[in-house]
Amino acid sequence: MQLEFSADNEARLGRLLAEYPDRQACLLPALYIAQEQFGYLTHEVMELVAERIGMPPGEVLSTATFYTMFRKRPTGKYHIQVCGNVSCFLRGSDRLMTALSKTLGIGDGETTEDGLFTLSAVQCLAACGTAPALQVNDTYYEEMTPEKVVELVGRLREEAK
Amino acid sequence: MSTAQTNYLLRWGDKKDLWKLDGYRLQGGFRSLRKALLMKPADIVAEVKKATIRGRGGAGFPAGVKWGFVPAGDGPRYLVINADEGEPGTFKDRALLTEDPFRIIEGAAIAARAVGLTAGYVYMRGEFLEIARKFEEAIAAARKAGYLGKSILGSGLSFDLFVHLGAGAYICGEETALLESLEGKPGRPRLKPPFPAVKGAFARPTVINNVETIAAIPVVLEIGGDAFHRLGVEGDGGVKLFGLSGHVNRPGLYEFPMGKNLKEFIFEDGGGITDGKALKGVIPGGSSTPILKPDEIDVPMTFDGLKSVGSMLGTGCATVIAEGTCMVQVALRVAKFYAHESCGQCTPCREGCAWMASTIDRFERGVASLGEIDLLLDVARNIKGRTICPLGEAAAMPVEALVTKFRDEFEAHVRAGGCPSVAG
């Protein structure tokens, strides 16, 4: 099946091309748009991006695989990303990870069977003063405790119903 | 007497609408830009030089000198604002971007006037997506009001600003890796020279400044370069944001003149160590800065002050560690971070960072031998000075300091066959 960008996303791509002096510079934002529409980046999606920007698919692959935020496989509706770096570690981030693992029944890098949650240990989120911190998709949750994360998962489960 | 907090930059506590254009203008916003538009570009650069504001991203290079490196000439010339905040322990730029976006926009427009720049990109780490969307709204509002775009406030100066999102690579905080990333490539640092001031973004002259540096520019123009300099110390001027995290009673963001005493910061402003514990160590300015023991922290927080005790000011955000914490665990978190974030371009960094992380992991798991302590130091020393960018140093220095200063803990892990602290 031939993949296509939605009309809205085509328009966004068009605007991007005006913001940069060089087509290749649109690659990161274009990959974000593709990820938003298709969920994650398959080779077919990367080929579509390559074709729209006018660069070799191999170079798109090279850039897309360098960055961790470009997903190469399906991710749950809620991607819970727990920082485990020094400041969060000192404030108990390991206990958050344990509580989340237990309540979701999955480990680091895994997705629940219903496709609702993916759990990831991530690097510093620049929220050290309000540690421990985590992100659900793009939203920050700070000064977390094991009780608060379990409650948060409950709220997200309700929201998804 | 204790140095009191200031509020030149950190001023949103009692000014709730600062992040809106009207709220910003109500606090005198864009007055410095109006002033700059009436000044000769060289005079603006001279004020910033007088201010001796050293780069707030951690490297500490004087911003005015950096601006002065850009050669005269026509054609596109770029400003890049480094908002790829990600050095573990550091959380100051995120607050500025969220709470005071117009300050950054105003600083950018002043830089454009001073150096003759045609467009700017705010390179924000990908995790800041929600902040980026709001920042884009601020840019749109500023553009509509004539502070950005064609002929800013009728002055003839044309300059526009855009947000560019990174995608989860710490290395893109290194300025040349950032440029590669901006150009749509993997973030692998470039060899210097050529320096970005001569050949930067899209092979054009480019100024790269940290968010906090740019946010301080309107202050410099408002109070004057000399007055800004005098707020701090000789050769390291002005005020700066400082952070506290970890085992401290009042973690968070603070502002002080350069030269604030680190010990006083932790024990007076920060309220001391949590649960009444003793202090074990302080990582003074982000995870790459070598750890200090409690008897080493009675120093002024300046670039030279921290250097005098064998560490670095870095980003000015300190991580406080209490007695009872396993330093092998701390070393492991730090080493794993750099192993994860090495771009892989230079062999000593790619291999060395991975070896440091896996060796420290052997101590934590209790399978290392005593000889591996010196091996670890040897690996660290062989990374330093052998890489294109400073990430190798950033990884080696903290490991070296942790192993040297807490060697007894590494030995204890060998003897105990694992982490002697139960919680560890």
Order of helices and strands of chain B: HHHHEHHEHEHEHHEEHEHEHHHHH
**Strand order, sheet with most strands of chain A:** 2-3-1-4-5
Beta-strand residue percentage of chain B: 5-15%
Instruction: Tell me the Rg of chain A in angstroms.
Output: 18 Å
Instruction: Calculate Rg of chain B over CA atoms.
Output: 22 Å
Q: Give the tally of structural domains of chain B.
A: 3
Which range does the strand content of chain A fall in?
Answer: 5-15%
Q: Mind summarizing the main beta sheet of chain A?
A: 5 strands, mixed
Could you give the order of strands across the largest sheet of chain B?
A: 3-2-1-4
Oligomer category = heterodimer
CATH fold topology of the largest domain in chain A: Glutaredoxin
Runs of chain B with pLDDT <50, length 5+? none
Distance between the termini of chain B: 39 Å
- At CATH level 2, the architecture of the largest domain in chain B is 3-Layer(aba) Sandwich
Question: So, the CATH homologous superfamily of the largest domain in chain A?
Answer: Glutaredoxin
Give the overall shape of chain A, derived from the CA principal axes: elongated
Count of helices of chain B? Answer: 17
**Distance, first to last CA of chain A:** 31 Å
CATH superfamily of the largest domain in chain B: NADH-ubiquinone oxidoreductase 51kDa subunit
Arithmetic mean of pLDDT of chain A:
96
Number of helices of chain A: 7
Protein architecture, described:
Chain A is an alpha+beta fold and 161 residues long. Chain A is 48% helix and 12% strand. Chain A is elongated. Chain B is 43% helix and 11% strand. In chain B, the strands form 2 sheets. Chain B has a 4-stranded parallel β-sheet, with helices on both faces. A 4-stranded mixed β-sheet of chain B has the order 6-5-8-7, with no helix packed on it. Chain B folds into 3 domains: 211 residues, NADH-ubiquinone oxidoreductase 51kDa subunit (Rossmann fold, 3-Layer(aba) Sandwich); 81 residues, Roll (Ubiquitin-like (UB roll)); 90 residues, Up-down Bundle (de novo design (two linked rop proteins)), CATH 1.20.1440.230. In chain B, 58% of the residues are buried. Chain B is globular, with a radius of gyration of 22 Å. By secondary structure, chain B is an alpha/beta fold. The chains are: A alpha+beta (161), B alpha/beta (424). The interface between A and B is large, with 40 and 56 residues.
